[in-house]
Write a structure and sequence with these properties.
The structure is a homodimer of 406-residue chains. Chain A is 32% helix and 20% strand. By secondary structure, the first copy, chain A, is α/β, with parallel strands linked by helices. Chain A has an 8-stranded mixed sheet with strand order 10-9-11-1-12-13-2-14, sandwiched between helices. The first copy, chain A, starts with a helix and ends in a 9-residue tail after the last helix. Chain A binds chain B through residues 1-2, 5-6, 9, 363, 365-368, 379-381, 383-385, 389, 391-397, 399, 401-406, and chain B through 26, 28-29, 56, 60-70, 80-81, 84-87, 90, 231, 344, 346-347, 349-354, 374-375, 378-379, 383-384.
């Protein structure tokens, strides 16, 4: 759906839309032939399925496994192939850093360089937050610009930080310096494309200078004596989600990356608290009255999937199910529960499998699904849609779209 | 599907295809948990469902509610986003008026202007046909051209008419002059786009001059003393439906707008009679021998939906079901029954919900649907297709398409 056309149909009204993304929600059958979602005791999710329309969405395309960025970008209605956001921009957006259009951002991992010039620890012994902050500040103090280009440092978490280059037109299509394995030498940053632009060549030169300067500055450190750069990208603002759909949008998420992707879309992001799912629900209850669209991100289903912890994923889902009545009691006009992608425990990673989705609303054409799960949803009324169709459907069920044409 | 590719595969044969569009066919569950279509007693539609392949089509895109124009354009195989037809052209096409490419058409509503310059009645007291014809003729007599551009007037129905500007390249991307509420002053016609073309500026100037002249001409009228313009568009012929698919196509419809959209596609439109559904069936029986593709439009299901009249919609469907054997007895090679969009009684308006469709043909891969309805069709063999896939499927089931490639 063309964003301009969709936006031209959007109207304001008094409805509330809540989109819950349970990260990595979909799965594959476990030991007893049921997925985590099917094995979990979920009376409240089942009730929701009975009152709504169910089915699946494909995050990107059949067979294509999404990263978290594109998966969320799709759910927010943007074509994830048109709006690919590099890790550097995504992670930085999850921090308080304020981008300017044209900034080139890169993730920056503190690492340990051995005497022979090879990487002996890609995470600098997983230095804690405080240590990461200290070495980031050390870099910031000593490297303020390179060849007239401003260099900005932002700590992210533990051994992870970001470097932002500002003030010159650059091209972020650059390879990582991280060799991905220990015992190897770091790579030179270089343009990815065969016939690179001069802006990419300049970006690579600046990045390599920065790495050399950082090595000098960090020389006295025991663990974090080196940095590796990855996920270069230029910050280019997304069409603003609030302006496109003429509504107030708010994001409640516990992890920086999901705050980041919501912020990139122009949503108001709640920065405080929310270490637990209960705290996230508290914030939803507090924020919903003053917003029209609320995005709630629940992380742990994915984490358990990534760990291959079938029972752990069951428990995360059951925990959410017990809290769900708090959401239902808020009586949003539209309540949608889905994932950004599947994370089957048997694969212990993100996967390409379509993601279960349920849209509960009075305007939904209710289907005959009785339970919330992958097998049940195969006969759901939504069928199998694309992730980018989710947002238009949420708007439609909230009666926030005019008809197209006479 | 690319129209040129599809057309290149089309072959002539002796088959007959009948496409019945029951306007606004799909719905939402009513008081007893069933839609109008499910609540209706439809033994003949059920028999058809058992002999065909069933499912849903999305008129435009998930979540997008179509106007009648785009909804039909899609069923006729044209991409409704590529071929958006403005109300001015659509309504005029439903009259005997013969367009020339490049004509700029606008709907024209007779209205009552109060002494203070505000609109006191947007429909001039709903003046009857005869009165509408008289004032249209009065305008036509007195305004034949403006600044060398020919002005043609066409009465449509009651207080509705159309104005067509001919003889100069114009751009129809203009806003309406109708303020949409009584007690407000009429708006100036102006280009919609921020950086309008000079052709749009000229179109706006001509339209405003026309409005001023019409006000003088109508000054002596008690009710219809003013006109408002809306739905400006340039007539740009669609690729011809008969030439594309090498068949004779014919339309039977009771309402001007549906005749109009068929005429714009290049179908032969039966202008006479057809006030009742029985009369429409009479015409289908008369015309089918001399046509290959017959489009039959049944209006009242939508009207009842728009009125929120659940039982009324049930009765329209049951009435059609009783007549259906007359169609089946004509033994068309392919008989497809669907709607252009859903019109749930609970919303009392067009909606975005997918539309039930059944294609009955000897070449159909018959599925296990036993009844004709929204819930039953969820397990239908067609699944959920796009409206623009309907026409290729009708051609295919009539064996009118060659294979693609060797």
């Amino acid at each position: 759906m063309d964003l301009n056309v969709l936006s031209s149909l959007a109207v304001e009204n008094e409805t509330k839309v809540v989109l819950v993304v349970m990260d990595g929600l979909g799965g594959l059958a476990g030991p007893e032939g049921r997925t985590s979602l099917e094995a979990a005791h979920t009376p409240n999710l089942n009730a929701l399925a009975r009152s709504g329309i169910c089915g699946f969405h494909d995050p990107l395309a059949p067979g294509i496994t999404p990263g978290s960025g594109p998966a969320h970008i799709g759910l927010f209605g943007y074509d994830p192939f048109d709006y690919l956001i590099g890790r550097g921009v995504l992670d930085t957006a999850g921090t308080p850093f304020v981008f300017k259009p044209g900034d080139m951002a890169s993730r920056l991992n503190f690492a340990t360089l051995a005497a022979d010039g090879t990487i002996s620890d890609r995470r600098a012994g997983r230095i804690p937050d405080q240590e990461g902050k200290r070495v980031t500040a050390l870099l910031a103090e000593n490297i303020k610009e390179i060849e007239g280009v401003q260099v900005l440092l932002q700590h992210v978490k533990e051994y992870r930080a970001a470097a932002i280059f500002r003030g010159k037109k650059l091209d972020g299509r650059l390879c990582d310096s991280d060799p991905q394995k220990i015992g190897l030498k770091p790579l030179e940053v270089a343009p990815i494309q065969q016939n690179p632009t001069s802006e990419a060549e300049e970006g690579a030169r600046l990045a390599n200078s920065f790495i050399a300067r950082a090595k000098e500055v960090l020389a006295g450190e025991a663990k974090a004596n080196f940095i590796m750069m990855r996920g270069f990208d230029i910050y280019d603002p997304l069409p603003n989600f609030c302006e496109l759909y003429k509504w107030r949008a708010c994001a409640v998420a516990a992890y920086p990356m999901y705050k980041g992707v919501a912020k990139l879309a122009g949503m108001r992001v709640i920065e405080e608290g929310q270490a637990t799912v209960e705290e996230e629900f508290d914030l939803v209850e507090r924020e919903l009255p003053s917003t029209d669209f609320l995005f709630l991100h629940i992380k742990k289903a994915d984490s358990m999937g990534e760990d291959g912890n079938f029972q752990g994923k069951v428990e995360v889902i059951e925990h959410f199910d017990r809290l769900l009545p708090r959401l239902v009691d808020l009586k949003p006009t539209v309540l949608c529960i889905t994932g950004d992608h599947s994370t089957p425990c048997s694969l212990a990673s993100h996967s390409w499998h379509p993601v279960p989705i349920c849209i509960a609303a009075e305007t939904a054409r209710v289907d005959s699904c009785q339970t919330f799960g992958e097998t049940s949803f195969l006969t759901g009324g939504l069928g199998r849609i694309h992730s980018t169709d989710v947002l238009p459907l949420l708007l439609a069920h909230a009666e926030r779209l005019m008809k197209y044409g006479a």
